[in-house]
Structures are given as C-alpha cells and as structure tokens.
Specification:
- It is built from 6 helices and no strands.
- It has 83 residues and is an all-alpha fold.
C-alpha cells in the first residue's frame, strides 16, 4: 500500500529545510510522532493536519494525496465540475 501522506509530508518538510524534530516542535509533537506519520504507521488529527499544511505552505488536500498541485488553487476544477 502506498504511503502518499507520509511521502508528501516528508518531501514538504525537507523542502522547508526542516528536520523531524523541527516539525514536531512546531506542531507540539515528538520526533517519533513525525516519524510515524512519515512511515505510514499513524496519521495526525484534523487540527494538526491543518497546522502542518499551514506550516509547510501546502494544502491539506496535497498532503492527503487528493490534489497534486501543492499550494496552487484549483478553481478551474470546481468551475468545470459544478457549472
């Protein structure tokens, strides 16, 4: 099974030049918790997910594998789908 969330979290963290310890401190969790997210053992709660996306300058959809565009807006998707 793919670990889309973990892979994207790790890539976004590294792109920001952060260690697992740095990221953990920023969202008030341990390095071990960040490691468990990146390896697919656990997932963050919804509030922490939002904090991660804000901190890493991406969207929650990107981290969850629902949007391949990171922080880019997808307004065209909604216009094409619903109108």
């Amino acid at each position: 099974m793919q670990n889309v969330f973990g892979n994207r979290l790790k890539a976004a963290r590294k792109a920001k030049g952060m260690t697992q310890t740095d990221l953990g401190k920023a969202v008030n969790v341990t390095k071990g918790t960040v490691s468990s997210w990146e390896t697919g053992m656990r997932l963050p709660n919804i509030n922490t997910l939002v904090q991660l996306a804000d901190l890493l300058s991406c969207t929650t959809d990107y981290l969850l594998g629902r949007d391949g565009h990171g922080s880019e807006e997808r307004t065209d998707y909604y216009a094409d789908t619903f109108f």
